[in-house]
Amino acid sequence: MAKYAVLLKGINVGGKKKVSMAELKVLLSDLGFTDVGTLLQSGNAVVGTAEKDQRKVAARIEKGIADTFGMKVSVLIRTGADLRAVIDAHPLAEVATNGSRMMALFLSDAPDPKLLAANDPTQLDPDRVRVGDRVIYQWCPDGVLEAPNVVGFVEKNLKVIVTGRNWNTVEKLSAMLEK
């Protein structure tokens, strides 16, 4: 049985795409997932399944959300090992002292190397942005709203879907997967 972190893009942000976590939990259970748990109100869940293909898991959840709630929502999936690797590789740990202002921007796919070379997101804030494996680390000491819009830049120029989580959430999701 595989366990996955489910990251929904844009749920309950700015009053848009409202989905209660109780409704999401019921939906995920109805879709056949086991050991379903949710975290916060921003579209984070943990599920168990026999399915090993992360893309199939994401597609099943995206379809379930569309059918149940009538909205298109992108879903990114990560294993416990994926989240542990993100945490272990944290390149800004020495300076990122506030978990609510340290962001992990999860990418749907590894960016095309040619696109990345031509559109390196670190250029937006060289001291506070680093590119990892299907993740971009962004330290926002003055808050996310004051930081460069790395998500928009990456989605436009690297042609991948991005959903961000603050460091506190990344660590909590990782812990949920380790149970």
Rg: 16 Å
Number of helices: 6
**Approximately how much beta-strand content do the residues carry?**
15-25%
- Tally the structural domains: 2
What is the CA–CA distance across the termini?
Answer: 13 Å
Biggest sheet architecture: 4 strands, antiparallel
Structural class: alpha+beta
* Oligomeric grouping of the chains: single chain
Globally, the shape reads globular
Mean pLDDT: 94
Helix content range? 25-40%
Low-confidence stretches: none
Give the SSE string: EHEEHEHEHEEHEH
Give a brief outline of the structure.
This protein has 2 domains: 2-81, SP0830-like domains (Alpha-Beta Plaits), CATH 3.30.70; 83-178. Helices cover 35% and strands 24% of the residues. The protein has 6 helices and 8 strands; from the N terminus they run βαββαβαβαββαβα.
Keywords:
6 helices, single chain, 2 domains, alpha+beta, 179 residues, four-stranded antiparallel β-sheet, Alpha-Beta Plaits, globular
Strand and helix layout:
Elements: E1 2-8, H1 21-30, E2 34-39, E3 44-49, H2 54-69, E4 75-79, H3 80-88, E5 102-107, H4 113-118, E6 129-131, E7 135-139, H5 150-158, E8 162-166, H6 167-178
Antiparallel strand pairs: 1-3, 1-4, 2-3, 5-7, 5-8, 6-7
Helix pairs in contact: 3-6
Written description of the protein model:
The chain has helices at residues 21-30, 54-69, 80-88, 113-118, 150-158, 167-178; strands at 2-8, 34-39, 44-49, 75-79, 102-107, 129-131, 135-139, 162-166. The mean pLDDT is 94. 35% of the residues lie in helices and 24% in strands. The strands form two sheets. Strands 2-3-1-4 form a four-stranded antiparallel β-sheet, sandwiched between helices. Strands 6-7-5-8 form a four-stranded antiparallel β-sheet. With 179 residues, the chain is an alpha+beta fold.
